[in-house]
Every structure is written in structure tokens, then in C-alpha cells.
Amino acid sequence: MMFETLKKAPADKIFALVAEFKADDRADKVDLGIGVYKDPHGSTPIMSAVKKAEHSVIGAAATKTYVGVTGNRGFCDAVSDLVFADSVPSDRIAAVQAPGGTGSLWVLFQLLKRAKPNATIYLSDPTWPNHKPMCEAVGLKVETYPYFDAETGTVKFDEMLACLDGLGPDDAVLLHGCCHNPTGANLTPEQWDKVAASLKKTGAFAIVDLAYLGFGDGITEDAYGARKLASEVPELMLAFSASKNFGLYRERAGAAIAIGKDADATAIALSNMGNIVRTSYSQPPDHGAEIVRLILTEPTLRAEWETELKEMRERMARLRQKLADAIRERSNASDFDFVAEHRGMFSLLGLTPEQVDHLKVKNALYMIGDSRINIAGIPEDRVGELADAILSAVR
Ligand code: LMR
User: Which atom of ligand 1 is the closest one to the Cα of 35?
Assistant: First the structure.
């Protein structure tokens, strides 16, 4: 007998909350949990550009034979261009298509472990709950760097930079490219410049997790950090996800990208990524990636996608402002003003686990246990009610 020798594995807290929310039969329940975009009706529709591209892809498809270990090349090129523009020469970019942002991180963490078996990876405190278990599963040592000041809702940048300045060439740093998950507090362009200078100085290796490009201030604005690092440091890795900005969650479209110091080093990185893919899952699913490729390379579809993405981004910014205003009006205090300053899909409210639990039990208001809220889940016509509930929990 084998399985009883194992202990039950811990549930992922984000997906555990999805199940809890589903099982709650209160009609007025509100889901501010998992990071999935919602429209004003509370649903997650297929984007119109995606629907059209999907139609063309299905119509044009003539075969289901294998694409190849590293996936859809047109997708990899289009995504590399979207992310890096002209910040780095294309012969220094090695990209493989991978199953979503998580699959991309998986490939990159393995590559890091192969290249630097003794590396310690530094994660932001706090970070997305899957980062640490993934790094540990690959066998990397994990530490944290200071990031979020829960008192003010802002980035503790001086402390973060002091930590980064103390790293060395056997250390790696995982940075959120934009729209920090879970906090919503992000680096300014000037701060990215300082991070790039620090990495250049110490030789620490950076991996960028870019899961929300276009959800913050705009595609160019959100890509600032990735482009800055790519243009300054000799080597870099980046995990791109099309789950949120193309709304392709279940299709698992992402890209693992390595930037090498020259074309030869880049070719070695690409061959290792191909080998990691082949020994992990052979090759990625094509459908979502082909949709993204078509949208990014066909001007009309691309314009439509960019317009839809802008609408989503502006809706989240509006909801942030509404919630911050509603809380300020009721409390006469600026304690939650930071919600309007944050960008992306999330804000970390700074509530205790007991307060989070109270909101779930008493108000059917669901957020992640660390008090992360999904801004897109806020029902626009119930912002006042939400503000009342949050204030009653913290008093
Ligand atoms: C989230 O943080 O809620 C999303 O990235 C979904 C996920 O895979 O956890």
C-alpha cells in the first residue's frame, strides 16, 4: 500500500475559496476572491476580439497534428514584441509557449535550478501564494524581500532596495512586472530604474512575473519595468500570461522567456527550455496561443482587443475610486485611500484573518484570507454596502 504513507497536501487557498463561495447559497453573496475579471453584470465573458479570432482559428484549422516542443512560434514572437518592444535585440530573446503564466514560471524555475543549483530566490513579502510552493517543488531555496507596508498601503521601497543591494550572483529575485499580486502597490518608473541599477551592480538574477499586462495604466506603462530591466541587465527571465488580459484563463496560454547575454547563450537557454518542456509535458496546448497570435498580428483584431482591454482597465480604476470615496465619506478618514492609488486587479486591505472571516460569515463577502480583494468583483451598485461592511469589520 502506498498512498496512506502520504500526508494530505495543503489546498491552494485561492481555489479553496472558489469552492467555498460556490457552496454558499446566500443570494447576496459577493466574490472578491480569485483573480478573474468580471464585467458590470458579474460575469466573465469571452472578449469580443477573442471570440472573432477563435472563429477564424477554428475555420482555418486543417489539422490537429503536433506543433512542436516549444509551441506556437508566431505566438512567441508576437508576445516577445508586445512585452519588450525594441528594448532588447531579438537574437537575445529565447521564448517558449507554456501552459499559462504558471506553466511559464514552472519552466523558468527549472531553468534557474539547472543553471544555478545553489540559487536562493527572493520573493516579495507578500506574494502570490503559489510562488513559494512552486520554487520549493523545483528545489530552490526561498527567502523574501521587504515589499508592502500594510499601514500605508504602499511599497517599502527603501527597505526593498537595501535588501536587493545586499544580494549576490547566486541569488535570484522574482519581481511582479506590474499590478502586484496580492497588494496592488507597484513600483514607479524611477523605482524600476533603481532596481535595474541594483541588479546590474550585484549580479543578482531577475525573473519577472508579468500576469496582468494592460490591467494597470496601459500596455506601455505596465511594460516599463520589464523593458527597463531587459535593456540594462545582461540576463533576465520573464513569465507572460495571456489568462487575464485576453481572458483566456482555461486555455492556458503563456510564454516563458529568457534573455541571454548574447545569441550563443540565448540558444543554450532555448535548448534547455525545450528539454524541460519535453520532459515535463511534451508540448503546450495550441488553441489559446493561436488566438493570441492572430489578435496581436492582425491590425483590426488588435485594435479591438486594445480597446476592450482599456475598458476593463478603466472600469477597475473607477471601482477603486468609488470604493475609496465611499469609505472616506462614511469614516471621515483616509485610511483606505490607498485603494484608489493601487493598480491592477487587487488591493490588500490590511484586515486581520478574523475580520476577513467576519465579513464572510456575516456579510457573505468573500476575499482571500490575507484580505486581498479582486477589484473587478465589486458590484458597482453595491459599493456603499461594501464600504459599510468593511468599516464595520475594522471597528
Ligand atoms: C489569482 O491570483 O487569483 C489568480 O492568479 C488565479 C490563480 O491562478 O491563482
Answer: 3
Q: Would the pLDDT of 1 be above 90?
A: no
Topology annotation, domain 66-297? Aspartate Aminotransferase; domain 2 (3.40.640)
319 and 39 in contact (C-beta within 8 Å)? no
* Rounded-to-integer distance, Cα 29 and Cα 365, Å: 6
**Domain boundaries defined on the chain:** 3-47+302-394, 66-297
Grid cell for residue 229: 530591466
Indicate the angle between helix axes 157-165 and 189-202, nearest 10 degrees: 20
Name which residue sits closest to atom 9 of ligand 1, judged by CA: 14
Give the residue from 307, 388, 367 showing the smallest Cα distance to 18: 367
Which pTM value belongs to this model? Answer: 0.97
Distance in angstroms (rounded) separating the CA atoms of residues 348 and 339: 8
389 three-class SS? helix
| Burial 336-348, CB ≥16 within 10 A → b, else e | bebbbebbbbbbb
> For residues 78 and 296, is the Cβ–Cβ distance under 8 A?
yes
Active site annotation includes 305: no
DSSP characters over 264-332 = HHHHHHHHHHHHHHHHHTSS---HHHHHHHHHHHSHHHHHHHHHHHHHHHHHHHHHHHHHHHHHHHHHS
pLDDT at 395 over 90: no
**Which residues, 6+ apart, have CB-to-CB distance to 51 below 8 Å?**
none
Beta strand residue intervals within the chain, DSSP E? 30-31, 93-98, 120-125, 141-146, 148-149, 154-155, 171-176, 205-210, 236-241, 254-259, 346-348, 365-366, 372-374
How many other β-carbons are positioned within 10 Å of the β-carbon of residue 80?
Answer: 20
Residue with CA nearest ligand 1 atom 6: 35
Sign of CA dihedral 327, 329, 332, 334: positive
Q: Could you report the per-residue pLDDT of 75-106, keeping only the tens digit for each?
A: 999 999 999 999 999 999 999 999 999 999 99
Q: Is the CB of 14 under 6 A from ligand 1?
A: yes
| Of 156, 244, 322, 360, catalytic | 244
Is residue 267 flagged as an active site residue?
no
194: annotated active-site residue: no
| CATH of the structural domain 3-47+302-394, one choice from 3.90.1150.10, 3.90.550.10, 3.40.50.300, 1.20.120.530 | 3.90.1150.10
User: Is-same-fold flag (3-47+302-394; 66-297)?
Assistant: no
Ligand 1, residue 128: give the atom nearest the CA.
Answer: 2
